[in-house]
Amino acid sequence: MSVANQKIDTGAEARAMSQYMHIHALEASGGFTYAQMGIYQAKPGTPKSQLETGGGTSNAEFAAIDPTTKQPVQNGARQVWISETALTSALNMSQLASQVSLFGIVVGIALLLTGIGFAILAVGGTLRNVEPALSFGKKPKLEKTPAVPVA
């Protein structure tokens, strides 16, 4: 399904978009996932033992330092994964919401048909014997019995 440059307004399109985003994140990171990359951008000359498989380092001692903040520079490719994870989670939740709403509609229709079926059964049962249907909710009339004198 192609969703490029289109409005995403269905659950299926949201799911397709999240799958494309996953592919693009893999391309941007050289095929490595979030967990395979270091937190920081490694400075030149970092020993191989301090580098992560997907690039960067998790050791702040070997991280490149931002001259303005004097803090270690975050690994840009890893940040792509953080953004991709957040955005695809939202898209997948849209797809889930779409499926749950469809489920609710189907259950509602099933309950409506069940109610109609029970109504038909109830009417069919009362048409055979009208007396119970007409007396439903009425108190039964008690007949007066003659009092027997006590001797």
Can you offer a commentary on this structure?
This protein has helices at residues 11-28, 76-128, 130-134. By secondary structure, it is an all-alpha fold. It has a domain at 38-74. The longest helix has 53 residues, at 76-128. The N and C termini lie far apart (99 Å).
How far apart the termini lie comes to 99 Å
Q: Specify Rg, calculated over alpha carbons.
A: 36 Å
What is the helix content? 40-55%
Roughly what is the average pLDDT, rounded to an integer?
85
Properties at a glance:
mainly alpha
What's a concise summary of this model?
By secondary structure, the chain is mainly α. The chain has helices at residues 11-28, 76-128, 130-134.
How does the SSE layout of this entry go?
Blueprint (H helix, E strand, L loop, with lengths): L10 H18 L47 H53 L1 H5 L17
